[in-house]
Amino acid sequence: MTRRRAVWALCSAVMLACGPWQRVGAPDRTPPGVGITQLFDASTVYRSMGFLVGGPALPFVGTVRYLRAATPDSTLALCALSLANTALTFRRDANEFVAEYHVEVSFRPDTGPSRLVTSDQAVRVRAFKETLRGDESIIFQQFVTVRPGVYHVGVLVRDRNGPNLSRGERVDTVPSFTGQGIGNPIPYYDGTGRSNLAELPKLVANPRATLPFGGDTLRFYLEGYGLAPGTRLAVSAVDGRGAPAWQDTVALSGGDLSHTTVALLPGRVPLGRADLVVAAVAGGGSLKAETPFVVSLSDQWIITNFDQMLSLLRYFDRQDLVAKLRSAPPDQRPGLWRDFWKTTDPVPMTPENEALDEYFRRVQIANQRFQESADPGWLTDRGEVFITLGEPDEVVDLRGDVSRDAMTIRWNYIQLRVSLLFRDESGFGRFRLTPSSRSEYQRVLARVRRMQ
Hints:
Layout: E1 11-13, E2 22-24, H1 36-40, H2 42-48, E3 52-53, E4 61-68, E5 75-83, E6 90-93, E7 96-108, E8 115-125, E9 138-146, E10 149-159, E11 165-174, E12 181-182, E13 186-193, E14 202-205, E15 210-212, E16 218-225, E17 232-239, E18 244-251, E19 258-264, E20 272-282, E21 285-296, H3 306-312, H4 319-327, H5 333-344, H6 354-369, H7 381-389, E22 394-397, E23 407-413, E24 418-424, E25 432-433, H8 435-451
Parallel strand pairs: 15-21
Antiparallel strand pairs: 1-2, 3-4, 4-5, 5-9, 6-7, 7-8, 7-10, 10-11, 12-16, 13-14, 13-16, 16-19, 17-18, 17-20, 20-21, 22-23, 23-24, 24-25
Helix pairs in contact: 4-5, 6-7
């Protein structure tokens, strides 16, 4: 999994009341079936990490990080948003497709004046298929100077070509960086930072702070203020249980402003939520800063438990590859997952793995549609058939047929030339494939897999 290609939106950098603006270049085993819906709900994960999250009408993930500003009574805030092309409405413009959106970033104190920045952006792509991308394909970022204090930090994103809009808000404390200090670690994709406090950092931020398991490298930009030359920062990745999963030290040049970067390589941190913690000893005291991130099997479906993933893949076509993942020791899992992704990706030129995306889409639908008593929908017989064969062409409900000794539902797959009967022998709404239908299903499934 190489870093997903991104269509960078215009990333504008604005300093309120500070002159002109410039542009910056574009764990524990979970029982099967438990919490499947939450595992696919990325917004729940990011919201729990303290991120700004937009609603389903126009989903986005946002984060705010703080650095020292040029004047001692102000702090420089970086607000970065991550959107997918599918969140916006595209219109055709000559040989291109164009989406336009409006962003408002606000810092509202309980008393006193608010800070508000607005921006209108456009995204242009050449192929219609690009408009359907569901991965992180758009990044918007804004620098704003605000006074230290407690604020209601809000973000509004509105589709300018359609009716959808979404808001995210949280209460946040804007820190003061007088004296010696360490800025918030900023996850980023590219850039060189800055060499003096009067500049804006040249960075393309990573708003989701998500490291795909087994692929890519997650980078953090660090700044120190007023530190002695040669000051070393202790850097650690702390997992959800508070245990350090990785540790290192980096040196700063010292002075009013010094900066460095930290890279988390694939496989160094286990799956799940973690925090990057940066600490230093200076002036007889201790300095500390931290920021959350997540290691997931994908930034599309936030699944952070390897055993859960193996359970979810029980119906996937390539069970030979799933078996290799299941038997692999933990230190070999990242490399094997990378191989699994590449081998099962039907269109390597695209950033998505279309086969896995479709598979997990069906798992989600089955879990919602076919729950039976305490059994999760994706673990029922109807869930299994739906995930592996897809939507039936015809569903015949025979439960009102008094001539039958049990309630029955028939699924017809016309192109596959098969009819499958699900029968509720117990009367408690638990539909199972009849023995003959189970045999027919296995025969058809083997044929479908041979054709793929």
